[in-house]
Amino acid sequence: MGRDPDAERAVDTSVVIVGAGVAGLAIGRLLRTAGVDCVVLETESRQFIEQRPRAGFIEEWVVRALERHGLADGLLAHSKPQSECEFRLDGVRHVFRYAELSGQHHYVYPQQLLVTDLVRAYADDAGGPIHFGVTDVALHGLDTERPAVSYTAAETRERHVITCDFIAGCDGARGVSRQAVPEGAMQVIRHDLGISWMAILAKAPPSTTHATFGLHPRGLGAFMHRSPEISRYYLEVPPGDSPDNWPHERVWRELRERLEVPDAPPLVEGELLEKRVLDMHNYVVEPLSYGRLHLAGDSAHLLAPIGAKGMNSALHDAFLLTDALRAHYEQGDDSRLAGYSDDALRRIWQYQEFNQWLSEVMHGPSSDDPFRARVAAARLRRMVGSEISGASLAGLYIGVDADH
């Protein structure tokens, strides 16, 4: 790969982090705390990333890791632990008490709030350099000892080049990091589920105390907590459908049809703040490293929001990569960087397998296939009825048994 001629100057920093999502910001804050110089580049504005609604379920092992690094104060102060979820099928409620089986909980904390906390911790508290609104980001010399990242600054429109030791590519599926890798050096392994979900944000108090999934012949309906005033709902919709086809009354009618059962409280309705149709697919990049570039988060993998794994997987990448970079700078040990991809991929593929398993439970009843529907019901019975099977699945659901 060619080098930008302007990059031929002294190293400006140790690590350039491309992308200010949870993975990039966590890496930046942890490196900054360890005394490793780094710079974060982000194409969006600070206001945008702090308000963009995303995931909300954080596994307890992630919470404890953030807590050890002093990054969980807001999360612990404002989130509520979740210990169970519920599946509704044929009018029957099946409660999966995964905290009893695993000893750990989920914490509900919208991703944009964690991003806000991490930006403050990195930029405001630790004085970490971060450039928002950059454009024309390009990576150079990935297979050399001195790679570089060039970009156009938002304020001055001037071109800048940062040389460094390593690049952390945390800029998502559409970012430039993965595109900078030579063709054939990385493989993107993709799986399309052939279904779509409409993600709905409603100005409505929670309808239940825990995440609830309605397994229905008309399609999945789901509820997840976000805050005391805001609720997240999902509706399975035909692939390629448009939110414009789903006015207020139709959305709530379908949610009632798919989620309500006789012995449960009715849904609490409210104004629809957001409707987005998501084509449900997964992918994994192998390997996650090329030269001095290491991918993390959505640059490296995507999980459909079936098992609430995306943010947790991104932060697992961030912790692993930070530890590997610290070992390089503090001990001169590059074995962890060499093993980063394999170490991260073990958990990534376990999360993918669990997502796939749970997808069959959720979508079997709406598949128009009697065999798949009955297999889904059998899986659900085993999940909630067998302590041995339930404990194994609870460990995967909460992420305590996902490195094997």
UniProtKB/TrEMBL annotation:
Taxonomic superkingdom: Bacteria
Keyword match Heme: no
Gene Ontology terms, MF aspect: 4-hydroxybenzoate 3-monooxygenase activity
Coiled coil regions in record: none
Enzyme Commission code: 1.14.13.2
Enzyme class of the recorded protein, top EC level: oxidoreductase
Domain FAD-binding: 12-353
SUPFAM superfamilies hit by this protein: FAD-linked reductases, C-terminal domain, FAD/NAD(P)-binding domain
Keywords linked to the UniProt accession: FAD, Flavoprotein, Oxidoreductase
Name of the protein in question: 4-hydroxybenzoate 3-monooxygenase
Organism: Pseudonocardia yunnanensis
Organism lineage: Bacteria, Bacillati, Actinomycetota, Actinomycetes, Pseudonocardiales
